[in-house]
Write a structure and sequence with these properties.
Helix content is 32%, strand content 28%. With 328 residues, it is of the alpha/beta class. Bound molecules: adenosine-5'-diphosphate and magnesium ion. Adenosine-5'-diphosphate (ADP) is lined by residues 24, 26, 36, 38, 56, 58-64.
Amino acid sequence: MADAVSVAADPGADILCADLVRIFKVVAGDGQGVEVQALQGLNLRVDPGELVAVVGASGSGKSTLLSILSSLDRPTAGVAWVAGHDLLTMKEKERVAFRRRSVGFIWQQTGRNLLPYLTGAENVAAALAVTGRMRGTARRARVAEVLDLLEVSHCAGRRPAEMSGGEQQRVAIAVGIANSPRVLLADEPTGELDDSTSAHVLEAMRSVNRELGVTTLIVTHDPSVSEHVARTVQIRDGRTSTEVLRSTRVDEHGAEQHVAEEYAVVDRVGRLQLPDEFVTALDLRERVRLALEPDHVGVWPGRRAEAVPDGEEKSPTTRAAVEREESA
Ligand code: ADP
Ligand code: MG
């Protein structure tokens, strides 16, 4: 617990998840209650001003993560801090203020982001009105400013139905950043768009991140998003597994080279997940041998547990349980 507190007190990160767990209780067809572990000890740290994509297959826990980070849902266990707020202990009043001022969000369904009966400008103005920070001329100037930043000034007088999907999402980003949140969260913001429109919307998010310094997290099942961001975190079975960092280097001929390097994620107690293909290639199961070398760690397949008399292999824990049962 002391460990969790020291992580939680870390002031440096804008988004910090440590061992985050979310279990849903659902009733199965036979009427029995079953548990779905949507997040199984997820670790993620995003520093101020960073733009990070979280990529994972459908069902890997992306929307669950974003619902928690936007305080619409509560985690079952673990640590979750966003923009200086502890999402596990936050009271309802702080939650409302947090959602209005500290975070902006963009959802996949274009229809969920904007009020259909308001124009683009009115949608942005409504977001400003909720926090009451700007009125009159200041509010109108802010509306014009964010619509211009997202290159959708021409949508100021149009209702969502009169905008293209890409325009709706760019107006949605304008709404999301209107109150200058510290963190911008987007759940599959390009999920309903074609490829070229998607690229345009992602570039809009990138320029908002660059120009305003707003910490931005985009979750998506679309791996091509990683081409637009410097850091991509892979989520698998409710855990962050690998990360790809992209950088630009200038080679000896003066040409720009884009470099992408893949890393495994190590959590704060030193656990890491081996890639499936490594596990399969060397048949790494149950236990491995580790060796510390000057600049790396070696991993070798371990010896198998001896077969029990019935010919079935049992793990040490199963065997211990069997022995306990027999002696009882
Ligand atoms: P993704 O957004 O990556 O597709 P989700 O976060 O929506 O994944 O879902 C992760 C897992 O949690 C899935 O198995 C999903 O069925 C389950 N899940 C999500 N929300 C709920 C809920 N409200 N009740 C029960 N199970 C849920
Ligand atoms: Mg989802």
